[in-house]
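note to self — DONT lose this again. spent like an hour looking for the file last time. sequence + predicted structure for the chain T wanted, 409 res
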Amino acid sequence: MAIILNNPLSLQSSSISSTSSSSSSSRSILNSRNSHTFFHRRCRFPRRTTLNSFSAPGEAAALLHQFNPRIPIEQALTPPSSWYTDPAFLALELDRVFCRGWQAVGYTEQVKDPRDFFTGRLGNVEFAWTYGLDGALLKATRITGIKDFNINEFGLIPLRIATWGPFVLLNIGNETSPQHEADNITLENEWLGSSSDILSNGGIDSSLSYICRREYTIECNWKVFCDNYLDGGYHVPYAHRGLASGLELESYSTMMFERVSIQSCEGGTKGNEDDFDRLGSKALYAFIYPNFMINRYGPWMDTNLVLPLGPRKCKVIFDYFLDASLKDDKAFIKRSLEDSERVQQRVVLKRETMYASLSQYEGIVEDIMLCEGVQRGLASPAYCSGRYAPTVEMAMHHFHCLLHQDLIQ
């Protein structure tokens, strides 16, 4: 499996392949020392620009101290609005959060056959530079006159890729050794911690069939979307009345683990038969820090990957999976999706930035409108910080504490 990344701020497009090319060199598809090696351009200088208390000019570091993770949730203030609006703070997050640890980037079903691949971006694009299958730079065009250029310093650096269940993960942190493939125990400990058994037993596995992908550009900070997801169902009865009718909200529960939080809720009896078939008897919502969500309900699973596009804009990628026994039941799939399709088509006509499509998660458009409204409120000079609802927003507070921990390191 090989991957090439081109933009340090995004994992949206690179190339992961299930097999190498038969030629000795390739501009875009590379082989590796094992099936889980990841490449990006080698540079003689540090590949990451680290912000510190003296950068930009110390604004981002100063903003960190406006949130205190040691204060109990019952007394704590939420992070200040500047965490959601300041460009310097986003730069700090990109360096200390998104460039460290495991990140979900794709699915095993995308590369199940020889020559299958999917793409993403991380690093700088070089025009017509040719690399060998071992990542070595073979040819760099139009560099006549350049001095002190050592071709061995500009190859592609291998980084680790691993899989868990249906997910393809990568780790671009300096602390990892690309020479060693991550075993399942190490990966589970680093990515999921003690939540791995609960997720595996909760039906998050490779047996589900991939159905479709939908992408949305949302005018809000990436953390606003995460916060909305992590409020313990607080907003559901008010913003998603259709969804709420199919759930027993009194049964809503939240569990926190090392870098994961899991919310669950029993299916209700108030909804119609179609809702029960779609939502099932229990719904599970798992948030894997910092930006990946897994939703398992009835025969369906969908995942949400949140990518920052700026301090006040993000992209959310939804991927949908279905029990293999139903993957050819077009009537069931259509019935599960058609209501939200009608809603989204109306919204898409008003929002050119949104990708026209369906959504299995019935409340996604309502969530988009809610998140964009929250972002507008965060930009108001009248607002700084808020308070948590202690009995329901534990996962949100957990997320903010993890974020603070990463940012101060």
